[in-house]
Amino acid sequence: MIKNADGYNDPTVDKAFSNILKRPVSEQEIKALARLKKLMRFLRFTAGEFGFEIEERVVLRDKQSGKIYR
After folding, report:
1. What are the backbone dihedrals phi and psi of residue 68, each rounded to the nearest 5 degrees, phi first?
2. What torsion do the CA atoms of 18, 66, 63, 54 make, to the nearest 10 degrees?
3. pTM for the predicted model, two decimal places
4. Tens place of pLDDT for every residue, the chain, 70 residues?
5. Are 67 and 59 in contact (CB under 8 A)?
């Protein structure tokens, strides 16, 4: 289960990632989503350590594939 910046379970994000991972995707997309999941966990943790929360949508573009994640 993915946890938010306060350390509590975040079922909304967990469900979203689960739905994304259920659809048939290529090995490259699976690796990109795994990197994205780790990055979001790191961003939330880092923001929390500095006394902040991520409130709005974070938009990221994968430099390797050019795909935009919203």
Report:
1. -100, 130
2. -50
3. 0.60
4. 677 778 877 788 777 777 766 776 788 888 888 899 999 999 999 999 999 999 988 899 989 889 888 8
5. no
